[in-house]
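job 3f2a | input accepted
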Amino acid sequence: MARLNRTFLLANRKILGELVVSYDDSLPERVIQFGEGNFLRGFIDWMIQQLNNKGLFNGRVVAVQPTPHGKVVPKINAQDGLYTLVLQGISQREVIDQSEIISSISRGINPYTDWHEVLKVAENPNIQFVFSNTTEAGISYVKEAYDGSQAPLSFPGKLTAFLHHRYEVMNGDPSSGLIVIPCELVENNGDLLKEIVLTIAQDWSLPSGFMDWVNRYNQFCNTLVYRIVTGYPKDNIEEFQNKLGYEDALLTVGEPYHLFVIQAGDDVAEQLPFHQVGLNVQWGDVKPFRDIKVRILNGAHTMMCPVAYLAGCDTVRQAMQDRHIHHFILQGIYEEILPVLKTDKEQTKAFADSVIERFSNPFTKHYLLDIALNSVNKFKTRLLPTLLDWQQTKRQIPKRIAFSLAALIAFYRPRYSEGSVFGGRRGAQKYPIRDNGDIVIYFRDQWQRVDNGELTIRQMVDHILLNTTLWEENLAEIPSLSQLVAVYLQDIVEHGMTSALRRVIVKETSGQ
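job 3f2a | predicted structure (512 res):
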């Protein structure tokens, strides 16, 4: 079976049909991208492709390897920047399963062996945009030296060196400034990246004129990105290859849903007219969209996870196929999370509807135990704000969120230890409790005191809720919360998760 590359594409363009919407390897390089992984190829580079398909951007991307041990750049260059993106999922109640050959990447560069090639890109007047996705840890300050002949290790260091070289070559021309659009999942990522670049410039004693040029003529945009990109389908690659008719070492799989919020002016929107090709790109303040995403999508994940797992489910889709858990999640989202969100109601409802569709994606295996990582902090950041809003505005306790807190405490009940790892049990099956070691030991100690008869479940719940180290505030002071969580937890312990959940659903449905 032949491998996807320029020769294969040109020789088989008629056979490939709808897989190739547009291909023009003469388009100029207009974007430098720090990162070449699955997400950027399934998100940013796909978006650039959609613009190129309609003749609205007419430019390509230079992808820079972010770490010394990357393995993607050789594959990019071997395939002439070409790769296949497969989008699978549910959108507006329709099953989507579509493939497209993406040609928006011109080449990849390993900066640790070819740093001079990265600097040559900085000299290109056609370059206008910088995109990045180097993991959340990538946008962090690292003090490091730079001699000009080798790439800095950190992404902000590389960007600082890149910008400084461009500033010098173009004599500080205001028109040479770039639009920097980081895609790392860090709050205020653009502002933070700019701050780090300026700090590094001071470390390296770069001229004040350069820092003035960075401040005045380069835009650093705060963003929010979302799309699940699962990447290379190694478990069923033969199925994909047989369907496509060729081998693709960069084959990338993702969901149809996407959201890109860019905090920038109209000038940037005009240069990147994503909205003109029907993409879900929003221009403006990131915070409302971040609140919607964290409260609804992430909140629902955290609400579902311990309940569904202890009820016998392993994946999000399995949970959504269970009518009791499905009902529980619908109630939690539409009757508890949405009513207290201070965001656009129509936009919020549309996002909630998309979340339900995505949870039911038949092509994605999203494992609950993966979502369960660091669940205490996730509850604090994703669900606690909703609970507190209910208390402050309605003087009530949102009962599904309270039940999920009880389920979380049950999930964190250690039943075995293997070395330094503690875990629980679901029937005869073991599962690891993956959280900060101090948190796991704290829950172990609380449950041991219950098992030894030193505490009742209600007393243990009181102790857990008043622990300000866990929650950053005393939750035991919230009227009725300890009592309700303890009642739910007692029911889970005595009768099992499925039985306890059914009683909650029945009570809530009947309006009690």
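job 3f2a | DSSP finds 24 helices and 16 strands in the chain.
job 3f2a | closed
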